[in-house]
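Q: I'm writing up a methods section and want to include an example of the input and output format. Could you take the sequence below and give the corresponding predicted structure tokens, formatted cleanly so I can copy it straight into the document?
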Amino acid sequence: MLFLDSRENIHGIKKNYQEFFVDMMNNLIVSNGKISDDQYFLGTMLFIGNFAEKPDKPIEVVDGQQRLTTITILFSALSDRFREMGEDTLSKQLFNYIMTADDNGTDVRVLQSRSSYPYFLYFIQDREKKVVEEPSSEEENCIKETYEYFWQQTSEDMLKKVLKKRIGEDTVKTFSHADILKALRDQVLDCTFISIAAVDKDQANRIFAILNAKGKRLVYIDLIKNKIFEELRDGVIGTFAEECWGEIKSILNTGDETVGLATFFRHYWISKYQRCNATALYDNFIKIINKNESVYQQFLEDLRLNARNYMKIVNPKREDYNNRKEYFWLIQSLNAMNKTFNIVQTRIALLALYDVKEREIISSDQFKKAVLAMENFHFAFTAICSLRTNNLESIYSRFAIALRKSTDKSETSAIVQRKLIEPLDKLYPSYDLFAIRFKELLFVKRDSPLNIKTKYAIYKLNSHFGDKEAFEDDGSIEHILPETTEGHALNIGNLILLEGKINSDAGNRCYADKIPFYEQSKYPWVAKFINSNPKWNDEMIDKRATKLATIYYKAILEKDLPVDIGINIETIV
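A: Here is the clean output for your methods example:
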């Protein structure tokens, strides 16, 4: 019986199972009219225990879980294939590698885990497929996806299709479906690997670290995880560590956008401790955290708390804030940074902002000021002007670390100004550059990447003219001159926001005929526009685009205009 160590996770098989199957198929050879297997090296696996002892005594798998899990799923699919074609003996014999019996004749799963994966237990490791519910976690979805891939690939048509490319159609015809399945089975069973057996966890951890120091170094998160489990390994505290780590992984795998553990950890680390690159992070971790058991426990608890906040940042939902309207602006701001601008560095600063917010040492106004400062900056700097700099991560890290160390609202307010607002101001694009790029914004009816930034800008302008802090939910982009009009009809200077139904009803009419529909809109911007523009033509579009760029820069971004701008923003609609 193999007992899986919690340092590896089943989720990791997702990206490897296809490559593994292709390798197994590519290693099959044809000789003397028979299809057979060839040697394949699975790598090194690390265990705790003695294989020479009684077969029912658990052997703990430290390094190799993903490979063994993948093989188990493949054997389950192959066993089901044999059973489907009436080869029940072959099916049962193969399943013995998944389910065996102890000295008392009791069925025992060969591969066992501390984590509970009902889908794996009752579908993959049970010939009768007793599970009736769909997978309930990301890990179980990976298991299901892997099984379904193996099941599809082991059909007679798919197997022969793959083999035809290598050995020719005429040769493939001579092999039955069962012949190919048996060869594939043997290919897996005859794989070789280097087995390293440790006597206990301490020795296993030392070997694990040495293997990864001398060979291809593991991702830093694996080394950090190993160190945490080394320090928190016994009794209640060991159980806590395993459950807490599992919960962190589960948190990061929920929502519309899942996050890799390594990505989250680095953002958390440079938000709280010290900015460093990925290669130095493990050494940095050892220097700062390597103290005693209570420090590791506290660190793990804090990591879990920050994982929850991180996912609130990545997947913001109204339910996170009890559907309170005063937080709708925050959800829209977070969505803008994550999805519209595709910015991840801001998460470093946001984690710290959530920390001081939960400790109630930042005012609502300062919290909002900081979040909107990043949103507005990245709209101008990243989305509109497409500028790049290597300083942003440093700015956000220095700000976050300083903010987390603050003790009262007065201090946090000063840090927001000195460590965030002022450094971003130094990088802000000039009005001239912003206006040039802003005027290039377009909106087409078909789904296009061009639309994303333009839609965001129009929604923000509509909120400004309506004196609202959050977007309207029912807004639809309207081309004042119909989209099909020659000239500048797609340009932002020809755009405004309408309610969806009104936009649809107005259709492609000329501007004069649209005015009665515009008059039905509840948006103040629309009323101001038609009152200021009794007529509308192509020549007016470019001028309005310039004016909208100006009011965006001054009123929304709150940046100073050149003294000679010559535009009265009070008249801009």
